[in-house]
Structures
1.
Amino acid sequence: MSLPIGTTDPSLGRARLPDVDRVPMKGIVFNLLEDAVARQYGENTWDDLLEAAGLDGAYTSLGSYPDRQLTDLVEAASAATGMAPQSIIRWFGREAMPALAAAYPGFFLPHADIGSFLDTLNDIIHPEVRKLYPGADVPTFGFATAGDGTITMRYGSPRRLCAFAEGLIEGAAIQFGQVVAIDQPRCMLRGDELCTIEIRVDH
Amino acid sequence: MTTEIERLRRRLAREREARREAERISEHATRALYAEVADRTRELEAVVAMGRAVAGVLDSHALGDLIASHLASAVGFDDCGIYSWDRAADLVRTIGYYPAERRVLLRDIYPLEEYPETAQVLASRNVSIIDSADATADASEVRFLAELGGSLMFQIPMVVNGQATGTVELLSRTGQVLDDRQIAIAQTMANEAGILFENARLYAQIRHQAFYDHLTGLPNRALFGDRVGHALAVRIGEDDRRSALLFVDIDDFKIINDRYGHEVGDQVLAGVAARLQKLLRPGDTVARLSGDEFGVLVENMTDQRKVRSIAERVIRAFDRPIDTRDRTVRVSVSVGVAMTSPALDADGLIRNADFAMYRAKQSGKGRYRMYEAAERDAADVDARLRADLRGAAGRNELRIHYQPIVDLGTGAITSVEALVRWQHPERGLLYPATFIPIAEETGGIIEVGAWVLATASAQLREWQEWMPGLAVAVNVSGSQLQDAGLVEHVRRAVLESGIHPSSLILEVTESVLVAEPAAEAMLRQLKGTGVRLAIDDFGTGYSSLSYLRRFPIDIMKIDMEFTNEIETPEGEALFGGIVQLGRSLGLTIVAEGIERSAQRDLVARSTCDHGQGYLFARPQAPERIAKWISASRLPDPEGVGVPARGSGRRGTADLQQVAAIR
């Protein structure tokens, strides 16, 4: 078995094995959700959601919390509003983006459009996220661009948060003053092996 | 209101909890950072410690063991092996292991075709892990691991300037693994090690270039001198443990080079080097000293017979010609052998062997000769004399002594033989036997010969005032006979002195006449100037007598050996026979070496008419000869002076008649 020097092969090293089910979610995600909910529906709504989900909700950005708590919160919101959980997650992705853009303008400023921004996701943005939030388990996407400019992203995280990705992409497009149409011909939630997210920029 | 307060209280508790959590995370991160810094510092120290430990270590194996131990301790592993990659041979060589005592379990070389995983590490410059529990792992690598008692092995390439130069293998017995950072530190140290090995290799190469001959791969003169010096140092005080030095020189190497070109010459040199190496025991040293000269040091070799047999083997090794790329070249060598002795340094020993080689070459090619101090002393003296002899005539250091030749009938002087002497400023009066061979060798004989001819002729002219019929005999050597200028020297001597040419006799030894085919023509030219010719030391030339008729000879001087034997009946008969032979050819006969009156009487009785020897007079300085000549007689050596034949002493007028020896 040969490895290039310095790569992190998860099968190597002590206590480095990413047992996906047990890798918790970073507190920053909960902080972003709290911000989005409080901004649109008021702080009391966040309190209500925590109460409905049965969580104490003391999230700190660098802390790590079970994935399950995010699911619980989304389900509580779905029950309260009648919206589908995937729609809520997608909304969360879109609404999280302004706060991220304000906090980390360096990821956005070099780009003029959503396409070149997404290009830097695997190699720049996510590695930086790992530095800021040690232990963050960010997904790796497969990218392809068709002749007509349609970007295809493949997503295969066991978390199955493809809707969150879609929302983040929509929110990012807004940062660049663009509107995108997103389609998912394949989705793990529908029993496919991977999710395929197709992004078309409307001009 | 209560609900609102309750809600705010819950929110405050939540914020407090979040803050504490953040503080815990922060503390933890700080501790982790300190631990990380400590780890990094330790690793950095390991690298620095390695650097410090290897400073000045230039032997790659010593370096290998040191680096292996530092690498193992830097990552906390039990074993570490270091292997250098020989690309050309497609193998790796073991150059270091920690712990050193397990080094015996390793082979010196591992062919890469048997170890594909190692080959892959070198080709890709990527780290590899061999796990003996992994069923897909390469069998030979797993076997290697098992031989060393390990279960897991990390192979890390040493990379210098983007090129893999070898591998570092960290071996674990417990299944302990390396994390990314340990791999990174091991990689850093491995690369550092690669540079150190490269430097050691360059150092060894430069050392090799400084001490080995590029063409033959043999040690050069500097290293040979060092080895000889070492052999001498070890042997000091152990006189029974001597070593032999053979100085080997290719015969006529210049001709080989000129005839076939330098490329063939170089191949011959390499061929000679290879043959010499094949002959020797492992501990012996063969070196190329310069050009076509080789040195062989045979240590602990006291038995001279064995040394001689080695020298013979060296000579015989060239019975078979040397094959070069294009042709077969026949080669012979001359060998000089010198033995160590406590008083001798390396240079001295090499010089002695060189001298013996020179003597071997003089005695003919393809031979060996043992060094003998006496020969060397003589040669040293010769070298001094050779230098001194140049211009000796010009510095007025040459003298001529004259030995009278007398008429055995009358006892009167008929001629004198001119014998050259050298009044050396430091060594006193030297006889011809000491310096004439040197003069012959250097060509100085021509200058000396011309001076003797001129001086003796001028002297004779003076003496002829008293004794007009007196003649002078001057010796002419073989090399003078080969010199076309001799005739001119003779003519000028006669002309400038004003003597009659027939009063100048040129003596040539029988052996020279026999050895020089061109002598006959020269003798005829000399004869043409009107001088007379004498054959000197007659009877010692072991040759056919036919030349006596061919050559225009006037006088036969019978060698003193026959005079010496004349007192026996056989000797007397032999002597008489020689005289008869000479007379039958119409030659004047002179007996050399007459020391006793009994000899003189027998010589006279054999009808030999002239004699020369201590009985009459030793060679004398010209002043003493002048006295006798002015008195027209020799003092009677025995106070008897009675001639065996004839009618007593004659006057000057009679001497004139006799002097015209014929």
2.
Amino acid sequence: MHRLKLITAVAAVLLTSPALAQEITVWDVNVDEPSHATYYAGAKAAFEAAHPGATLTFQSQPDAEYYTLLGTAFASKTGPDVIWANGGAQAKSLVGGLIPLDDKLPDLISKLVGKSAFTAPDGKLYFIPTTLQGHVVYYNKTLYKAAGLDPNKPPATWAEVTKMCDALKATKVACFMMANKEGFEAEFFLSEMANQSLTAQQQADWLTGKLHWSDAPIKAILQAWVDTAKAGWYQEGGNSQTMFMDEFTLFSQGGAGNVWGLLSNVAHWKVFEKDMGVDNVGVYPMPSPTVAADQHEGAPGVPLDGGVGYGVNKDSPNIDLAVDAVKILASPEVLANLVKDSGVVPANTLVDTSGIDSPGLKQIMGWLADRAVPTTHANSSAAELDEWHRQSQLLLNGDTTVDAAAAALDKIQAQAKPQ
Amino acid sequence: MATNTIRQTAQGVPPRSPSRRRGRAEARAALLFLLPAVLLVLVFRIIPLFWGFGLSLTSATATTPGEFIGWGNYLRALDDPNFRASIANAGVVLLAVPLFVTIPMVLAILIDQGVPGRAFFRSVYFLPVVLSSVIIGSIFSIVLGFNGQLNGALKLLGIPGVDWLGQSATALPVTLVIQSWSTFGMGVLIFLAGLSTVPKDMVEAARLEGAKMWQIWWHIIIPELRPVIEFSTVITTIGLLTSMFGLIYVLTGGGPGTATTVPEYLIWAAQGRLNQPAYAAALSIILFVCTGILAWLQIRIMSRNANF
């Protein structure tokens, strides 16, 4: 009888103690990724050491349906405490379900870059970026050599890109990989072409919807999409080729001379250096057909913004603990594991990357200091990107004109970003 | 006896016969047996339907409840070129219904007539039915890719390759062919079951009278199969309008452009990609009403024919 009373008393204490009953759940699509294992383990250990009795649980979510599941969870108020998201349109569409973090983590936020991808139109930061995402071109040095090109001198102007593509075409090799089944290649293309052809003011106008798809600088990008296809830069069948499933593997296997790739997570320097050999892969920022007044010919910019980040559900019963979990996930000590294992470029400037011996990463880190420009597609609305996916496929097939595509996109932009 | 009856009537209590009591007990038992199914339909179909309709009248997003906007989402759908394209595609899909019904019917009749290897064909035809649409989509994405096996074979014959899934002209027809391949086995099974009810003596008599094979098919077998044909048409129509999402998602992603976007795919895109559940709900209600009207029309035709 005494034992029963004792057990009841202990159970009552455990249940009424907030610290002991608390579990912070994190939804993330990379939980099963082996290269992320040390990062999550480190975050969990640091969190649980700082909050005895509380637990940090990472729940794996499917990448393809993630935002659908998240939307359903928000609607039924069963979402996790901490939410992972890609920077840009998707993250910004979720801010109604999150708390702003500006006042919660001011010290940490002052050390971060890439915040605009997670900043809502109200000017508040709703996700803490952990990685940076950006767009550069990776190229195959062996194929360059075979085409008579200097593998250590990648193109720096549009004229040089055109010349390089002509040389590769002469050896029956596609100049750039094209995988636009999901429309993602068109997203990358938009940012890669805008990096040098848009002024800083035009990039700002794009974000607010004052620069339209039918305005000359953007229409020129749509035209470049058509012209490069007509010039035979891409392999055939691009509209039925998947990007993340196939394109980057095919590039690693010598499917094309160049590929528009990323800085973090997938299709980035570490993956290509591992698959193709450090000496066989090079990297350069993509030049644009036209150079804006405040840009420099021969020194293209790198579209750069927050890659992925973590936000806090406003319906979380443990908001303070959830905020602390986000702080730990973005802390330099914990994030260093992710940088080392998976090769992401960190958003926290205090993370030490000096120990990573990669010629590609060293070049990229050098450009980030003085060549970062906004990622144009990340500053587009989800509805615009969805329509751009469709229109880009039609343009690639010759089923529509640049004017008609721009008009269709203008209509969507006007609905998504009313003036 | 007569006195008792008069007394009961006078007291306003109807006389209860044993058969009536038994009938009520049976009705209660029937209701009890039906209850689980009724509850499932009510909870998972009827209530969500009304809930979805309510949602479709709001401006709700994934994270905000939104405001009541009346028919705003429905008017938006009418003005949405992608929705109009998806309806046009649904029309093309419906035009293919006769093929989706005829092919399994013809194959089932051939099997029933005793073609050599009928057991083998019956198994082989049914095999794709047990494969998930994702697996089928993945297989055909590889086979029909620009560098896939089909173009490889065409190349051997000197025919240039075609981007079957990436060209607007070919993407939807090819998707329909694959959908037909993946589902016709079930149709064959349904028609085989129907063929077992066709009187064999009638077929035999016609044969003895010297009727040709096509005459037997046209004048005896197909008229006898009429109820099965009508049933198959109804379920094929509903299936094509509501069950092609998985295949389209894997094969083409609704593209190129809107070439393979059907209403159910657009519903997913509105919810899954654009976080617009209220608009997705409005599209769902439109699809439900269209499918309901089509099914009602077909069932009405079936009932009328059954009365002849």
3.
Amino acid sequence: MDSSHSEELQLLRRSVAEFVDREIRPHTMEWEQQGAVPRELFSKLAALGFLGVRLSPEYGGGGQNFWFTAALVQELVRCGSIGVAVSVMAHAEFATMLIQRGGSSALQDKYVRAACAGRMIGALGVSEPDAGSDVAALRTRAVRDGDDYVIDGAKLYISNGTIADYITTAVRTGGPGHRGISIIVVPGDCRGLTRKRLRKIGTHAADTAELHFDHCRVPAANLVGAENDGFRLIMAGFEGERLVLATIACSHARLMFEEARKWGHDRTAFAQPLLGFQVWQHRLADVLTRIEAAQTLTDRAIDQYVQGNEAASLISMAKLYATEMALDTARECAQLYGGLSHMEECLMGRLYRDSLALTIGAGTSEMMRGIIARANDLTA
Amino acid sequence: MKVLVAVKRVVDYNVKVRAKADGSDVDLNNVKMAINPFCEIAVEEAVRLKEAGVATEVIAVSVGGKACQEQIRTALALGADRGIQVETESGVEPLVVAKLLKGVVDKEQPQLVILGKQSIDGDNNQTGQMLGALTGMPQGTFASEITVNGEKLKVTREIDGGLQTLSLSLPAIVTTDLRLNEPRYASLPNIMKAKKKQLDVLTPADLGVEVTRHLTQVKVQPPAERQAGIKVEDVAQLVDKLKNEAKVI
């Protein structure tokens, strides 16, 4: 925990929790059915300063550290739909932090300011049909033509893809490999850009899309950072993304645990509550122990990250452990629920299927293990 | 115009409270605490008066242990300008709270004091009225609308069967009902400002008040558990059950 800001973090958590109670949870089912959160959510969050928590105060952001983002995420997740937190984070943390980290002041003035104010929604476009974990293999190409770049290619599994007003897009401007990658901000209304919402098996409230770039002409001034320096920016951004995912996983798992505990007290079988059986007492005790372990690891990774220390290995451990833990928790808690957990109307059913994407997004568990191995002299 | 708002630390309204096993009190161990909802409405109203240019300063005051500073900070994050904690043990009786608040009123000389009509823990509904009696200030309780007009305060009160409108001379006391307003969420910038705002701690002795007890809590027990209902087949069975089982007709 950030002890110097504990009071503010507690106030923030309380305020977001109230917001979730009144403005989000009552609409969660509707948004899940629509496949996206409404634009209104972004403007409401913006009015409270919740969109630009880590973004620069110069452009209307809060200028706070990652602990504040974590507090926001923890409470957002408690609405019972990971998609809501994913959509908000894809905008504020993933797409916009990258512009802040590398973009010119003109670019920041335009996009970071609009992002903080909730006037524009952002998406981060990195993954492609043939390049997921292997970012260095991406093929979407941007060719310089006078004062513009002309972009051709495709992006896949892009959060906020169809609702975004700008897409912070990873493109190839140079040769093969990670040294030929740049970041360009593509306006959502760019001619030649077509987008299609994808149907998923979970995180329904997050809009996820397939994007096609067909001769998309974008001003060269939309280049974020230097040409061919995009890979470094993406990797730096991944650290925050992975901490967001680890934080989501811990909060999501805790929600599942709390739901399971309630059910365990209420549901009777063989003339006693499920929690009358020692087997379920022990299984949920294990679940809670793992949640606390994941939270402690995640907090330690955040602490190192916030202090500006080298944290790639710890962040990868937190992302790996917390998301795998959430998946295990989902299985245990759904098992306790029995048949009901298989029903669309049951919160546990939705929490269960929302857990599935956590071990994949922002770097798979396998990629995390690779980073940990390389950082700790485990390769030969 | 200076506005004084009283805020109380209570168990969060979402929490299902339980009695302690020995029946001595409500179990507050690991229970989420919050600002009393009616007090939050009082804060919101004061902040709105300030935003409207009617109030110049909003002071949030709470009576209780150190933990109640959390609720004062919440009020500051919602827009109050400074806070005062009157340090006592928890569970102080309404009359003592009213005396302590009178001490603060004498010290601060507010033109308007806004309190929640009651707190959701004790449900006493006494403090505002007692403060009115002690200070001699006019009171408008259960307010659903207030308007300041120069030296007068128009208060719309929710009473049985309708609304009553009073005109009070300032300084005055108002207690809030649920429909007075809908409190805002604390924004991040205001949350960051809250910690820097002044929070003074006073003791009852500073205010010349002796904390006494007139009541002793004998026992706290949960309400009797309700039995599950059944579905009756027809009207005849319903009448039979009402007559012979429930014995209400």
4.
Amino acid sequence: MTQFDRIVAATLLIIAGVGMASAHWLGIIFGAALLAQLGRSVREGVLLGVGFGILIAVTFVGQVVINGHFDRLLAMDILALLPIVIAVGGGLIGGLTRGVR
Amino acid sequence: MSNDPDRTRRGLLAAIVGGVTAGGVLSPIRSYLDGFAPLSGGVWDETQSDRRTLQGPHGAATVRTDGYGVPHISADSEAAAYYATGYVQAADRLFQLDLQRRQMRGQLSEVVGPDTVSSDEFYLKMCFDDAASATWNALEGTRVGELIQAYVDGVNARISEGKLPPEFGLLGFEPRPWTPADTLLMEKQISWTLTGSFRTLRKALVAETLGTAAADELYPDRLDHDAPILRNGTDRPAGAQSIGASKTNTHQLDAALVNRLSEFESPPGIGSNSWIVSGEHTESGEPILANDPHLLLQAPPIWYEQHIETGDINVRGVTFPGVPFVIIGATETASWGFTNAGADVIDFYTYESDGDEYRYRDGWRSYETEERRLRVAGATDRTVTRRRTVHGPIIEEHGSEVAVAWTGFGATRTTEAIHEYTHSDEMDSFLQATSKFDLPTQCLVYADTDGNTFHYVTGRVPIRQTDGEPVAGNQIFDGSAGEGEWDGYRPFDRPNWDGSGFIPFEEMPHVINPEAIGTANQRIIDDSEYPYYFAESYSAPYRGIRLYEMLDERIDSDQPVTPAFMREMHRDTVDLRVQQFVPMLSTTISEESPLREHITLLENWDGRMDRAEEAALLFDYFIRSYRELLFSEQLAEIGLPESYPTDWVIAGLDPESEWFDDRSRAELLEAALQTAVDRLTSESAAVYGDVNTTGEMTHPFGLSFLNYPSYPTDGSPATLMNYRRTGVAGSSWRMIWSPDGTAEAIAPGGNSGRYFSAHYHDQLKQWADGEYKPLSLTQDGDVRFQFGGEQ
């Protein structure tokens, strides 16, 4: 697989992963797991999974900011961290599947 | 062998991935993941646009929302309009709907846990759910029943979409489908809030413990003042009371029972203000109506504002979430509002009993019993045994028990009346509808474009009879002896409301087209002017006196009444308690006392509970301290620690009263003022507005981010601009209306219960500052939901 192929595959998998994550929280794990398979090592796979999780978290915060609710989100204190933890944690779990292969 | 570490690693990782995923799916953590997951979590649905086109099984309807989040619903038919109403109420207030229903059905512990078991036991034993079912049984198949069903369909359409407010995610449950009986349960809830009183039991306990004289001194049935609502009596019937003077009876009751029941009755601060002025005295020549019901203040508010327009109706106002029809509001021809009347529609009965049966007149009857499971989250479920007699459900504690008769246990027709209000276009049809308003007992005020006004007490007040003679209801009756019977009363069935067991509608206290009338929960009518036993007691008259003071002064002056004057009355902060207590301090505390400078501060103050006033803060601290110093120990000794008498009673206590015990009144006044001064010195608050804030209005969930922001406001529990910051209650909806085009109102918070909504508390600051927003009957705003279009 060439570098170009990998980039194309990663882009497609990220799009599919974000779609799945928008439907259900299991989508974060599935999306991360699919992306992680592009990793050339377990370590790289896990990093890709975590990166996917961070992308989901950033997308989420971006949505909240665009819709004008960032101040309300911050006011939720510890609960505001839950979606971030779920995103990154789900990405990590998905990424770990690279090591099962 | 070289593959073993790899196999172990793969196995370990597979176990971690599989275990964590399975744990997320199968464990209670799932509710948090479902709720809070980024992008998909139900909690974040509220951050997305909530505009859509939906199917409308009852016909086409459009919901627009204006700049305050008020839904303006237009439809070709009422059924379509109320389907849309159900949908939009659920979109904005679903958790509130479910919480109220759970409370009344005794199902809070199922989701909250053991903390609410006591509450659930009470509500289960009171059988409110059966009363709601009986009321629905009477409505099912009628036109109103069809509209309620359409509303219910709308609520359930929203529930079925799965877009749940964050509170459901946090508690980890989903709401069951809404039912018509749930809507009727809301009628029972507000009726209980306004008329459910255990005062008879409380007073009997005090009388048993301390004697009837002490009980009468502490809780007098009538307060001495000259500002009843109907100062000239009722239109009909006039005449002296035909029953003997009521008496305070004693009864052996368990103090724990009475104290516990106090948690579930009408809380302090529940009341209201209303006034109407005829066109004869207004600048425009048109009548003016003002109303502000005083109810619990919370996030989100107890009321939901809505505007509904079909070919037949055009009505805007507020309702309780869970109820389809506007309860207080205005149409194109009229406006109406309510204050609590305080009529006595509840009685208590004891029996000769062997545990399984009770004696009723000449025979023995079995208790009607039913076992209900009380589910408790995180603890063992319990079984609650419900028992009933011919009079109603039994409530008991430590072997002490009474049966409760309450008009709300019958199939009430109030929802029919409320629906008919929206169709009324003149006074007679409005009065006709009011004749079905069985509960709660309310002081209804009305004004219309024909120039008519009226004040009419709604509801059915029982005529208690013992041996065929009318008797007062402020006593515990011997149920076995057939005392205190209500003819035609059938709990959990259809009572004969129009029979001889209740005061006829035509003879309820009322006045048609008065010059002006003011209601603020004070005594409705002097007993000498009315032939029936009507109320056990009324609220302290501070607001009632002030209201008439302002109305009389204006009407007697050269200045006509204007909408601006109505607003001035709504915003009035004169606290008449100041006129009672400050002179007491002035005359009893010596000139040499170091407290003199503080008394001077109070003496030089105009008695207005305004946010910028230091004296208002000092007075507020003083009155709380004086009340506690005077009564807290003695009330705790008799097992009723929070049952303080009204400030009117405290102010009027004879300086030689036994309640002062071995202390003099002067000593107590000085000690209370010293405590207030110490508090003022030690705390950071400098003026009244530092503590009198909207920050006390909280969300029942207990999470701080869901509470309302803190804005300073004016007023006290005794002022027309009404705010009680402890046990928070006050003006839950301020409304002014006149055919001259005036139509304005404000709610304490926002119309949406959705935390991320721009309308979560967008009216709060205006409310705190005594401002209003328009209450127009034009379709306003952008389309939010369109029903009947393509999916």
